[in-house]
Amino acid sequence: MKQVLLIDDCPMYRMLMRYLFSSYLYYVKCYPSVEKLPATIDLTSYDLIVSDYNLPGLSGYQFLKLVRDAFPDSKLVLLTGNRKVRNLHADIDEIANRVAFKPLGKNGLDKLLKQIFHSNSQLVSNNENT
User: Fold this and answer.
1) How many Å apart are CA 21 and CA 3, to the nearest integer?
2) Helix, coil or strand: residue 19
3) Most-buried pick from 22, 35, 112, 118 (CB within 10 A)?
4) How many Cβ atoms from other residues are within 10 Å of residue 8's Cβ?
5) CB 6 within 8 A of CB 55
6) In sequence order, which ranges of 3-130 are alpha helices (DSSP H)?
7) How far lies 31's CA from each of 3, 6, 10, 13, in Å?
8) What are phi and psi of 74, to 5 degrees?
9) Are the C-beta atoms of residues 18 and 24 closer than 8 Å to each other?
10) What pTM value is reported for the model?
C-alpha cells in the first residue's frame, strides 16, 4: 500500500483527497499546515508528498523546496488554484515532480498518479471537476 502525506489547510479538500486516494488503496496522512507536522515525522516513509501552495506559515512551495533539498528522490506534488504559479517561481519544475491545479477530481488524480509514478516533471493541467 502506497503512503501519501497531504498538507492542505482546507478541511473539506483534505477529506475529499483522502477519499479519492483511498479509492486507489493509498494510505493518506493529512495535516492542515507544515507547522502541524510532528517533529519526528519520517518524510522518507511516504511514497508521495502532496502540498497545497498557499498554506498558513511556511508555504507549500517553501516546504517542498526543503524536502527536495533534503530528499532529492522524493515524489512531490504542488497543488494550487493559482494558474500563474509558474510566473512566481521559475524553479518550480526542479522542486515538484508535478504541479496540479485545484480542484483535482477523480479523473485528474488518476492522470496525476499515472504521470507521477512513470515520469519526471511536467505541469498537470486539470479542468475536470469529477
Assistant:
1) 10
2) helix
3) 112
4) 24
5) no
6) 11-22, 60-70, 85-88, 92-95, 106-116
7) 14, 6, 10, 11
8) -65, 145
9) no
10) 0.85
The SS3 call for residue 122 is strand
Q: How many helices (H) and strands (E) does the chain have?
A: 5, 6
Cell, residue 114 = 499515472
- Classify strands 76-80 and 48-52 as parallel, antiparallel or unpaired: parallel
pLDDT value for 49:
97
Q: How high does pLDDT run on average in the chain?
A: 86
pLDDT tens digits for range 35-67 = 999 999 999 999 999 999 999 999 999 999 999
CA distance 23 to 98: 21
CA 94 from chain centre, in angstroms, equals 14
Phi, psi at 112, each rounded to 5°: -60, -45
Q: How many residues does the chain have?
A: 130
CA end-to-end span of the chain: 24
